[in-house]
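Pasting two entries for a bug report.
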Amino acid sequence: MKSYTYSEARGNFATVLEEAERDGAVEIRRRDGTVFRILPLRKSKASPLDVKGVKVGVSTADLVAIVREGRERG
């Protein structure tokens, strides 16, 4: 893992981000010894439409009746 001083990271921020993306992480060190680690977030492969189901306690027969009633009105 590559390590930068604060000044180096500030002056080459685009490069620091590219290295973090390529290598998985980059460390930045301050003069006072504080260390920060930049990690890329992994892109989610799930669809934004992939929504967790909710149990509502409605039977299939009830659901069919509701849909039929809605079609009759429309």
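Entry 2 (this is the one that rendered wrong in the viewer):
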Amino acid sequence: MNLEKKRIEVLRWRILQTLNVGRPYPVSEEVIMATVGGEDMPVTPRELRREMDYLEDRKLIVTSGRDTACWSADLTHHGVDVAEYTVECLPGIARPAKYW
């Protein structure tokens, strides 16, 4: 598997996890960036916004503040279901297999 593709899929999963922890409130782009990025996986603001766009296109998140310097995001009901393993996760997101 392409390592860059895998990294992007992991980033998408981390975004969903971060938003799930932040529920019921929207989470700012700065908090998401601080949570999902790190030494193990550096993330640029452009990459983060691109993957937030992807998740919004899949109807998993809703972003707000697109006309401002800092976006924020919240999970949709389907995004909550994916994050909580209630529904199947389609390809494109590196959700680990449920082990419990």
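Dev reply: Rendering is fixed now. As a check, the viewer should reflect this: Residues 3-83 form a domain with the Arc Repressor Mutant, subunit A fold (CATH 1.10.10.10).
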